[in-house]
Amino acid sequence: MLASLRALAGFMEVQSAQTPEFSPGFGTPFIWATTRQIGGDEVYGVGGPVTNQDSETVGKGVYGGVLVHVRAQPESRCRGALEFEDRLQALWVFSSDACGVYGIQGVKIAHAGRSEPVGQIALVADQRELLVHGASAMLLRVIP
User: Fold this and answer.
1) How does 75-86 read in b/e, with b if 16+ C-beta sit within 10 Å?
2) How confident is the model at residue 85 (pLDDT cuts 50, 70, 90)?
């Protein structure tokens, strides 16, 4: 099975996506807290809706992440869902249209692995050495 890279996020972006935007009030369950996904979608707690930046519902919050319909981001190299995969998909801390690099300065996705050579992913960095910390996240997509 081969995969391509849709998005890469630094550990601070991952941490931020898991931290509520506002501190829940006394007696309010933590799972009801609103969080912002990497890429901008809003999650209104576990069981609540997930909305994009246009306030359209794109999925729902679940324990440990989200189930959303994958969408293309306008003017990006990432595509939306293929016809056979237009169903809710688990994206953990990523938005339905997350695409590219978040929170890692000077790093770009040179080759996502979707085209030849299929399955090979290449990152480039402005500096000599590339360091992607262990708590960072990658959103991979299975290549059919």
Assistant:
1) eeebeeeeeeee
2) low
| CB contact at 8 A, 120 and 3 | no
Q: Strand, helix or coil at 46?
A: coil
**Cα–Cα distances in angstroms (integers) from residue 110 to residues 11, 73, 79, 142, in the given order:** 21, 18, 16, 18
Scored b (16 or more CB within 10 A) or e, 121-139 reads: bebeeeeeeeebeeebbeb
Which pLDDT value is given to residue 132? Answer: 84
**Quick check: 102 and 5 in contact, CB under 8 A?**
no
DSSP 8-state assignment for residue 16? H
> Helices (DSSP H) in the chain: which residue ranges?
11-17
Q: Encode pLDDT of 43-82 as tens digits.
A: 999 999 999 999 999 999 999 999 999 998 777 788 777 6
